[in-house]
Amino acid sequence: MLTIDLHxxxxxxxxxxxxxxxxxxxxIHNIYxxxxxxxxGVDLNMxxxxxxxxxxxxxxxxxxxxQGFEHIAHIAVAxxxxxxxxxxxxxxxxxxxxxxxxxxxxKALQEITRILKPGGVFALSVPRSWPEWVCWRLxxxxxxxxxxxxxxxxxxxxxxxxxxxxxxxxRRHWAHALHAPYWWLKCLFWxxxxxxxxxxxxxxxxxxDLSRRPWITRRLETMLNPLMGKSVVLYFQxxxxx
Length: 242
What we know:
Layout: E1 16-20, H1 26-34, E2 38-43, H2 46-55, E3 72-77, E4 90-96, H3 105-115, E5 116-127, H4 129-138, H5 155-163, E6 167-175, H6 179-188, H7 197-212, H8 215-228, E7 231-238
Parallel strand pairs: 1-2, 1-4, 2-3, 4-5
Antiparallel strand pairs: 5-7, 6-7
Helix pairs in contact: 4-6, 6-7
């Protein structure tokens, strides 16, 4: 389930890419097989980092790119507010559905800016404010889950905050409209979220959609994303020093 549009990263052979807060690897796996770059996945959770590493072995390693650049992937455990990388180390950075979990998210943005090369691309996604607000209203336990969301972002305010770091905004879109009602149902029936037949059925539909990608649900989600997309995705470019 990709949230970031990887085409927007404009990946080229030999570049270094960071997936910050990679979770179980949905973006890093796609980047690894898509482009002959050196992609590094970082997460604070050891179990998720291990799952990401194991997932890289599910398929044969891709062949080198046209210019001989290898597909390289590494996984590391690290804190987003204290990243173990040198300045200007990456050509592109992804941070998808992560900042809402971090108390000092401004420090994480400073670290991202520090390690991104001038001219590099930063792709960021967080839960959209109003679908997220519905979740918080439907269940008091939603935001109290261990490692859960600590804030609801206003996309305009977040955009402005990123721009203060010296990153220029380039584009925006929304994603995963079909997932918003699923989470509303889980929050509404929180105590039965893992057993209720309606939620289990909806989950099967989402898995079917992700694996089969039928035109009807893809078209429907494209139409609904501007209205109720669960995630807002923002893209920036680091400005070169004057």
